[in-house]
Request: fold
Amino acid sequence: MGEGEHTSDSTRSRPRVTSPVAYAHAVRKVYGSGDSAVVALAGVSAAFHQGEFTAIMGPSGSGKSTLLQCMAGLDRPDQGQVVIAGEDVTALPERRLTAFRRDRLGFVFQAFNLIPTLTARENITLGPRLGGPELDERWLAQLVHVLGLADRLHHRPAELSGGQQQRVAVARALVHRPDVVFADEPTGNLDSRTAGQVLEFVRRAVTEFGQTVIMVTHDPAAAAHADRVLFLRDGAFVDELVSPTSEKVLARLAVLEGLS
Amino acid sequence: MILMAWRGLRSRWIPTLASLLAVMLGAGLGTAALLIQESATSAAARGELSAWHLHATDMVVRLAPEVRTTGGLSHELREQRRLSPEQLNALNGVRGVESVAGETAFPAFVLAGDRMLGDSRTRSWGHSWSLARAEPANLVRGEPPRGPNDLAVDSRVASEAGLHLGETVQVVTSGGRHEHRLTGIVERQGEGFEHALFFAPATAVRLGGQAMVAFVSPRPGVDPADLAKRIQATLPEAEVLWGEEKGRGLTLDPRAQLSGGMGQFLGTMAAVCLVIAAFVISSTLSVSVSQRRRELALLRAVGASSGRVRALVVGEAVLVGGLAGVAGALGGVGLASAGLRFFANQGLIPRSLPLTPDPTSFLAGAGVAVVTAAVAGTLPAWRASRIEPGEALRAAELPPRRTGAGRRLWGLVSLAAGVGLLLVSMAVAAPVNTPRGAIAVSTLFVSVPFLLLAVALLGPVLIRGVVGVVAGPLRTCFGGFMASRSVQADLRRAAGVAVPITVMVATASILLFQDSTTFVAKSRNYGQRLEADLVVAGPHQVGVPSVISDRLAGVPGVRAASGVVSTQIFVVGQNDEASYAEAMGVSPNAISQVLRLPVVSGSWSAFTEGTLAVSQETATTQGWSAGGNINYRLPDGTPATGRVAVVYESDATFANVLLPRSELLPHLREPFDTAVYMTLASGVDRATVERELRRVIHPVPGLVLTSRSEHLEQMAAQSTGDNWIVSLFVVLIGGYAGISAINVLVGSTNGQRRQFALLRLAGARRGHVLSWVTVEAAVSVVTGILWGSLISGAVMCGYARLLTGTFWVPLPLAPYLLICCAAVAVGMVGSLVPARLAMRARPLEAMSTT
Reply:
């Protein structure tokens, strides 16, 4: 597929010392069957490197959320392979996959997704409680400090603002130093100022702590915080933008819309 | 609004279905109870409870089977009143009467080899030949019985016993065993629920006493209505039946009176079911309201008034009540007919009782369901109406608010009411066989719904206490940690699960304990009272022919022997207030030697013909004392006067009044002793005496001689076999409450689907989630068991005190553990199954669908 070549060109164009921490190879996902079949991913390949912040953009129905879910082991592709930190995610049995997600991946979702009955601190430390890697108290303290959550730790989600809730979610995604953090529209429910704070923090996690982040978004301002933006359309990568700004992203999107 | 309510129900059809079932069962049982009651009443009025239709006689005259106090209240008598020879003569003298024939019915059994034909199920009666003519029961072979030894029998009896005309037949009556000659065999219509033996009229009077009914033939051309008036003018107490009414002239089956009792039993059951249904509907709606807070808030936000939201929730409840009420009431008709067959097969009601379809029972059954549902819907509706519109716009899932002060207040009020009733019952503390004791028992059991209501209202507060205690140890595992957090975050949901379990455990254990407490108390009291060395007992519900006890008393070596026969007498107090008293016919000179009955005042030696012995409790209540004269009515209404010879001390399970048997027996339809108690003279050879006693009872098959301890064992075995009906009740109610609890649990667990999905996204395995669900269910179930046991324990202590005077309660450990296990099973099924099902979907999908 033409788009596939385009993608491999673009990954080659950013030479890295390290090998990719995560990559997707010819991932294909079809929903339904027969006439009603919808091709969500038409054989997508991409590589993601250590300490890189990648945004995935595309119009609705382009397959960006499906790709994220297949990469994160939340959904299984029909064909292709996803490898994260040397583990073939697509081949892991369900139990091992659950443990792998808990220990090696972090998640931030649009709808905050905190457990309503637990306090902020308990939500953040859920992974260790579930048998994940041991809690690094110093790292937790640092996270809480940077995220400005120090005085909110013993509040329940209902007692926190949206921005605070999302910062708790970010802390939970980072507390076990995962190989990759997946973020699905993390600022979708936030106002632009709060969204900016959350993204600024994600940015710092990448820059200062070498965190790898893959984020799906439709917000050019959010994408501007990333190192690069991959554009997805009809289940395939069609373009890539390095060192994006809001304006550049908007322009690319306009071109993409024009294509349709 | 109805349409919205309907849609709401459809979208949550599983919990709705369970609510529907709960109400349906309540409505069905209610309808069935009313139908059976109605059938019994109307069948009694039509005479269909009787095996005798009396088609061939013109009129039936009897004395009304009731006693009227001077105040005009009528009280039903236990026995048919007798017509004296003078009264029969007077009847004969009434103008327009051609002839009068009396009929006496008395227990009479044909012996077929070593077997007595007839038992508690198919009774066997002796009659005057006049009944055969009045029925008619037509001779198919032979001659009518004319001589004192002649006998005619039903063709069914003849074939079952293999009797032939002219043969000598052995017959057992209360007078013992006699020989009769079979002169005729008759056939009659009807299903033969009773065996019939016909004797010459004079013989019937000799064996069975004075006439119970008289068959009157008018002279040709006499108008029956006019004649009836003239008869009533001559005999003011007479009841004259003609036409259709004749059918109720002669009802012998004592179970005819029980039919209403079965209706009452079902009615109690229906009431319990509806109370549970109310709790279920309320819990189900509460859970659904807290799950739909956002949706309801949205409704409020777009302009629905709080009244409209309230109407929506009550509307759902009423819809459930209406649908289930109608369906349940329809099912109740089938249930009633099945119930009649079942009870008849168990020998609890006459087999001749037909089902009377009655629209009012149907409407009442359905109506009660609607009302119950509406009442149950009010609390959740009120809560729903308080949801603020703004909640719809909030992003986070809001935990429900804390328990309201109003709810706590009402909870405390019903707790106070429940405890108050308990204390009142303790304060009254009269033995259960007295009117005051009956009030104490009712007060005791009325406290149960109040205590349950208190638990329902204070549930959140109470469960917080429980969690506060166990949270520490729980926190050591993930499941425990999540469970304690989740319970603390939403106390109402946890309480909503614990309440049905409480209801289940409390009702099931009270029913079970009540039965076993009563039984154990009775056996214990009976055992403590019984001082006889030897006991003769007869077949179940048939007893020992009364003549046997006199013969046993005459055996050398027997110091004292008394047959005992239980009945009721009717006491008219000083202020014309009338009451029944449990009475026992005994041999006055022997009773104090076979039963331990300590004297309070008077003396047993003064207890002779023309006197009575009364229990201390009754003496106090009625204001009687030793030496005083009292007026009373014998079981068949005959007025009598007697002097109180002795006031004795007894427990709540013994008769209030003792009468000399010889005075009581002529007034009983079935003069058979329940048992004969004997003590032996000192120094006699027991084996020799026993051999002699066996020789006395030998002619009557079915009589057994046992030692005191054997007798007590047999009584224990007999009574434990009797409580199947209570077990059935427990299974029904327990199962019903269990289903309800599952219903609430399913709703509650389904409400946590999103959290399960969130946890799994955060890396929890299914095992993690299931351990959480298990611990949380366990907390609620254990709390429910605890509360239920506390309530039933308190009530049962009070009940034991009323029965035995001590707080001692027998704990039926095995059944109790069974109830607890059932509660645990209910909890696990109700939470683990839906949790497991919820996790079949991938976490992300599960989240997006919520």
About this structure: Residues 192-209 of chain A form the longest helix (18 residues). The mean pLDDT of chain A is 83. The two ends of chain A are 18 Å apart (CA to CA). Chain A touches chain B at residues 69, 74-75, 95, 98-99, 101-103, 107, 109, 111-118, 122, 126-127, 129-132, 156-158, 160, 162, 165, 172, 189 (CB under 8 Å).
